[in-house]
Amino acid sequence: MKMTVFGNKELVGGFKLAGVDGIVVDPLTQGDIAIKLLNDEASKKDIAIIVLGQSLFNYLINDIKKIRETGPVPAIISLPELSDDIVHLTSGQMMEELLGVNV
After folding, report:
1. Is the bond leading into 74 cis (omega within 30 degrees of zero)?
2. Is 52 helix (H, G, I), strand (E, B) or coil?
3. In this predicted structure, which of 4-8, 58-62, 70-74, 85-89 has the lowest mean pLDDT?
4. Tag placement on the chain: N or C end, fewer CB within 10 Å?
5. Are strands 2-7 and 75-79 parallel, antiparallel or unpaired?
6. What digits encode the pLDDT tens for the residues 2-21?
7. For residue 90, what is the domain's CATH number?
8. 3-state helix, strand, coil in the chain (%, to 5)
9. What's the structural domain count of the chain?
10. Average pLDDT of span 59-68
């Protein structure tokens, strides 16, 4: 199983250093591309985890909910980007975001 990442250049670059494939996507200028990429990656059987930058995750939240309704894989998670304000979440809030369910 593989992992892929979409987000700003810092987020994607960091994961590429660890050997994870990724694509730099800006939700403000490439929203339609982001939706297509998310759906394409989510339909692949070998993708287990999709990591999105927080701004991209927020932009795609409705599409993410649709994908999560189809099953547990792939897990779609968000990570803060350098430009984001850091939000401190409780472990319960993190699980709710990760799993897409209320805990």
Report:
1. yes
2. strand
3. 85-89
4. N
5. unpaired
6. 999 999 999 999 999 999 99
7. 3.40.50.10580
8. 45, 20, 35
9. 1
10. 90
Assessment of whether the complete model's pTM goes beyond 0.90: no
Distance between CA 55 and CA 44 in Å, rounded? Answer: 23
Residue with tokens 């990442």: 5
Q: Whole-number mean pLDDT of the chain?
A: 85
Nearest to 5 by CA among 65, 43, 53, 57: 53
> DSSP string spanning 73-84?
-SEEEEE--TTS
Pairing of β 21-24 and β 47-53: unpaired
Q: State the Rg of the chain over Cα.
A: 13
Query: Cα(44)–Cα(49) distance, rounded to whole angstroms?
Result: 11
The domain of 56 spans 2-99
How many angstroms separate the CA atoms of 93 and 81, rounded? 18
